[in-house]
Amino acid sequence: xxxxxxxxxxxxxxxxxxxxxxxxxxxxxxxxxxxxxxxxxxxxxxxxxxxxxxxxxxxxxxxxxxxxxxxxxxxxxxxxxxxxxxxxxx
Length: 90
Hints:
It is a single chain. By secondary structure, this protein is α+β, with helices and mostly antiparallel strands. Helices cover 31% and strands 10% of the residues. It has 3 helices and 3 strands, in the order βααββα. Strand 2 and strand 3 form a beta hairpin. The protein is elongated.
């Protein structure tokens, strides 16, 4: 497998839109988080993440159309709100 067979992570959002998989490109952070949590498949080579072009439809389904995500996939959770601590009395 060569670099020409894979899409660098920084180009995945552009490729998703360019190839017609979605009109809403995911943010880089969304892609990276999905890779780190195991939601989407990726390869790491010399510290850089790459995606197989054949996985673009799956990535679009998971990140751009979460309502159509297969039931077996874990749902993303919303971040909890910060809890404000009471001020310490002097």
